Amino acid sequence: MARMSAEERRESVIRAAMSEFSRGGYYGTSTEAIAKRVGVSQPYLFRLFPGKRAIFLAASERCISETIKVFEDASEGLSGEEALHAMADAYTRIIAEDPDRLLMQMQVYVAVAAAERAGDHEFGETVRAGWMRLWESVRAALGADVSETTTFLAYGMLINTLVAMGFPPEHRVWEGFYPSSRRDGRPAE
Predict the structure, then answer these.
(1) How far apart are CA 21 and CA 104, in angstroms?
(2) pTM for this prediction
(3) What is the DSSP letter of 21?
(4) Per-residue pLDDT of the chain (189 residues; tens, 9 = 90+)
(5) CA distance 60 to 15
(6) Coil, helix or strand at residue 98
(7) Buried b / exposed e across 91-122, counting CB within 10 Å, b at 16+?
(8) How distant is the alpha carbon of residue 103 from its chain centre?
(9) How many CB atoms lie within 10 A of CB 39?
């Protein structure tokens, strides 16, 4: 069996961290759990990343980057409402298929809020920079329409919240969504 390069191992740490942090959050996840999931020692983990914070920020960045890619791929060659519905459909699918991604997003928001409350503004600045890249990506796909961008992302946050709380696809809370963002795909009645 071929030995993994440091970059491949780093990649496996980011994937494991996303999974672990999505469940336990920043404060409830130990680097020991991440190292164990990857199959490395904690000292080796800290050769790849300077600390837990760096691991969390790398996982956060990956989560945001992957979401941007989902939106860009879905909206490629489309504009306006077609792009909006394609991105909504792709996002709804991806969070259903990969619940860790949704939970990681939610954990990132909680971690930033806690860090800000504790006076650590650098943590939030890093995450907000990623969020702004996401916002700009959506804005570009929607033809630079700020209002549509805000509405789209507001729907996305509501979807995140409803899915995280476990509302089933057939629940009435989904009735007001446009069909491409409804979890069951049915049009509103």
Answers:
(1) 6
(2) 0.88
(3) H
(4) 567 787 899 999 999 999 999 999 999 999 999 999 999 999 999 999 999 999 999 999 999 999 999 999 999 999 888 999 999 999 988 988 898 999 999 999 999 999 999 999 988 999 999 999 999 999 999 998 899 999 999 989 998 998 889 888 888 888 887 665 555 555 444
(5) 11
(6) coil
(7) bbebbeeeebbbbbbbbbeebbeebeeeeeee
(8) 8
(9) 11
In DSSP notation, 22-49 reads HHHHHHH--HHHHHHHHT--HHHHHHHS
Residue with tokens 């999974």: 19
Q: What is the spatial distance between Cα 156 and Cα 177, in angstroms, rounded to a whole number?
A: 10
> What Cα–Cα distance (Å) separates residue 130 from each residue in 33, 169, 179?
26, 29, 28
CA distances from 64 to 23, 57, 110, 130 (A): 17, 10, 15, 6
* Phi and psi at residue 85, to the nearest 5°: -70, -35
Nearest to 163 by CA among 114, 101, 81, 90: 101
DSSP class of 182: S
